[in-house]
Amino acid sequence: MTLVLRYAARSDRGLVRSSNQDSVYAGPRLLALADGMGGHAAGEVASKVVIASLAPLDDDEPRDDLLAQLREAVANGNAAIAELVSQDPDLDGMGTTLTAVLFAGSRLGLVHVGDSRAYLLRGGQFAQITRDDSFVNELLEQGRITPEEAAVHPQRSLLLKALTGHEVEPSLTVREARAGDRYLICSDGLSGMVSDETLTEAVQIPDPQQCADRMIELALKGGGTDNVTVIIADVVDVDFGEDAPIVGGAAGDGSDELHQGDSPAARARALTQPPPQQRPELPQPTEDPKAKRRKRFRWLAGALVVLVVLAAAAIATRYFVLSQYYVGEGADEEVVIYRGVPGSILGIDLHTYEQGSCPPNQVCTDKLRVTQLQEDARLAVQNGVKKDSLDDARKYIDDFLQLHKRLNNCAPTGGQTSPTPTNPVTPTTIPSAPAGSTAPSSANQPAGRDCSTPSSTAPTTGGGN
């Protein structure tokens, strides 16, 4: 018995996004999907870099150590992101999810980071085989929200894991491959737009290409608010399978079915090749002078309309920006509140300083620094944690981030006794953690000080950009 893959892949920027930051690769041995994030061109850069690092795995000589191959390729991609950020600070904050399958006959290795998903259809049963590394999924698994609430939760785009150039541990598993299995790998542009019931029905379409096309159609009908990328792969028992890789999304040239050659080097090179140049336009015949004047008038009228639209858009954008708040990193690495949104346009910041880490009108002797936070919380703040109001941002700092401060000067325990102070000391009140966090215990610790390490993990900003 010879098991091979029969596959199809499609990627679409959706109905709202101006660019496609998803990257996809589908070949005889490798199925990989990366959903970039970070704004501007940074998201597509991150997803392309990671897919390019995995592409050489699509080799004709499979090895036994599938997970070691995947781990090394992911680490190389993550290191490449870190190197790009070090060379260009404007790329700081970019990242990508990754879900990839490395196929080797009767076995396959699966690597996963983020909230892109892999599903398996086997024996009529359709189920998700990856776990979303997201803040909302944590709440869902803890039973604190329902699936219906998760679908509309305002923080459903917050990721707990992503490839951002910082150290991260991907999920790695080995699975048995059986003839008749069908795998669906998709970005959250599909899973967030289409219900599980509809996906279960659509995945039954026999032809992989028609099935992938239908998935894209369903996502667009559902609103198409994000980039949507789909891989459909069937495990079949035939002597020879497909060998033409599919490179699409941000990593492609606009054609998800372009044949890129059979060697791993050619496939990796195809990920960074520029799009084909368009033919130069033929010279137009000389126009009548009156026609030129009419054309000039229409051009001026059109330009005026464009200016009016741009002015209206600028006013609407300013109103929208000034109604937003986020927690970020300020001067001297202080955790501060900004009014607006992260980033800039044409060198003009889209945010202004609103408050520091200490409440206003209060004497502050111990400002909260980014360096005092645990890694996940630090990354979240450096990327910017969006909030709906100033009160929400204030509460985020007071009740949540304070739990992640590193207390490096705690008094030793284990029987040692601190001298009794002459004057009574009022115990310090530890701010209560938000829902889902665990407040540190104060047992066997000096009064008024929290010396434990919180078990909760601060969410990072991500998901679909």
Short description:
The protein is built from eleven helices and 18 strands.
Radius of gyration: 26 Å
Count of individual domains: 2
Number of strands: 18
CATH superfamily of the largest domain: PPM-type phosphatase domain
What is the helix fraction of residues, given as a range?
25-40%
CATH class of the largest domain: Alpha Beta
The N- and C-terminal alpha carbons lie at a distance of 44 Å
Q: Kindly report the CATH topology of the largest domain.
A: Phosphatase 2c, domain 1
Taken from the alpha-carbon principal axes, the silhouette is: globular
Structural category is alpha+beta
What's the mean pLDDT score? Answer: 78
Account of the protein in words:
- The chain has 465 residues and is an alpha+beta fold.
- The protein has two domains: 3-257, Phosphatase 2c, domain 1, CATH 3.60.40.10; 325-409, no CATH class.
- 28% of the residues lie in helices and 23% in strands.
- The chain contains eleven helices and 18 strands.
- It has helices at 42-54, 66-87, 135-141, 147-151, 188-191, 196-202, 208-221, 264-270, 289-322, 375-383, 390-399, and strands spanning 3-12, 22-26, 30-37, 95-96, 98-104, 107-113, 117-122, 125-128, 158-159, 171-176, 182-186, 228-237, 246-249, 325-329, 335-345, 348-355, 385-387, 460-461.
- Strands 2, 3, 4, 5, 6, 10 and 13 form a seven-stranded antiparallel sheet that branches. A five-stranded antiparallel sheet has the order 1-12-11-7-8.
- β7 and β8 form a beta hairpin.
- α1 (42-54) packs antiparallel against α2.
- The radius of gyration is 26 Å and the shape is globular.
- 38% of the residues are buried.
- The model is unreliable at 257-270, 272-287 and 406-465 (pLDDT under 50).
